[in-house]
Amino acid sequence: MNRRAWLLFLLVSFLWGIPYFLIKVAIEDLSPIVVVAGRIAIGALVLIPVAAARGSLAKLRGHTGPVLALSAVHILVPFTLITYGETHISSSLTGLLIAIEPAVIALLMARTEPLNRGRVLGLLVGFAGVAVLVGVDVSGDRWGLLGAAMVLLAALSYAVATILVQRRLSDVPAEALTGATTTISAVILIPFALLALPSEPVGLPAWGALAVLGVFCTAVALLAFYQLIGLAGANRAGLVTYLNPVVAVLLGVLLLDEHLAPSTVAAFALIAAGCWLSTRPSPAPTAPTTPAPVSQPAKVVAGLPSTPGTASDG
Fold this sequence. Notes:
The chain has 314 residues and is an all-alpha fold. It has helices at residues 3-15, 19-26, 32-54, 64-85, 91-98, 101-108, 117-137, 142-168, 174-194, 204-237, 244-255, 262-278. The chain crosses the membrane at residues 7-27, 33-53, 65-83, 89-108, 120-139, 145-165, 177-198, 204-225, 237-255, 261-279.
């Protein structure tokens, strides 16, 4: 990846590492549906003027189907699943479970990027890490299992969205694409959010968390991520989930007093190792070596060596 791709990678890794903490803060005073609809609506209000100013909204023509699909799999479904999932599990665990996304992308792209032994091993190791993580952290807690299942479905949805952007929407400018998907999602969710508005006063931390979620973790992060897909491809762009959990865990442990057990760290290590193995590029096939032509026996001339360039004896 070039320098710009690396900068986008680091930016998205940070901006998508902090939402889990912010969601936990926001849902203290706001219902999950209000948080989801609010952050998406704020994102749309930021993105649509940017796209209009750049004159890129016209590039959406002819892409209605893929844009609607992307609105569902990259905004509507995962944002809702993650927010409701965090009502049952910690922000740290949420970030760690999302880390399985690169392995899911590798599995979904197996038809175009065949799985070799290393990638298959990576998938097995990564999913074993998820099994350990879920088994240790939420075993016996049916609501915790439900929350974990929601987050894993969100990771699957993110993986589908990443591939969809690369295959069907790579020619659409990022600001037009993000503006359209957030607007569509907001229009769908706002009526439900209006029915769940809080009746009690909402604290400043919740409103602040919602504002940051909308402007930075939605608008800015989506713009950066779609540009990253265009520069680095779906597999590499999905690797932002290597760093997301680190940010999520640090914020959860330091600011929310969430517990981090050694077994959780070990499980994440398995997930990270599995994702790394499953997304490694396949080794390039070695070209068959053409045997050198067998030369005809050289004629021996008196006083000269039989092989050119070889000194004569004595």
